[in-house]
């Protein structure tokens, strides 16, 4: 069973590592853990994202089935990241929206698109029981 000290990791394609660095480190504020000729490893909000240099980039991007991101426990953290993304002119795939309005699983969400067309969704559930 995973414990809080364990880290989830995800590998994604990147057409250019300098672009990935600029988006994730300079833009989102993630920490660079390692850099090699073919990848960068990031501390992505406490978990590990590895951007692998690749020419297999999705050109016709759709939200489903492939995206990843963070679900925030605190609304203030969601709002701060949204404001940061706006102030740093990160590319939005979808602005803040309310999903499942009026239902217990109602949540706010916005989606960013990185330079390699990977989609990142950020969420905040009004009812914290709905995080999982």
From TrEMBL:
Residues 6-125 form the VOC domain. PROSITE patterns: PROKAR_LIPOPROTEIN, VOC. Pfam families: Glyoxalase (PF00903). It comes from the Bacteria. Gene3D superfamilies: 2,3-Dihydroxybiphenyl 1,2-Dioxygenase, domain 1. PANTHER family: PTHR39434, VOC DOMAIN-CONTAINING PROTEIN. This is Glyoxalase. It comes from Tsukamurella soli.
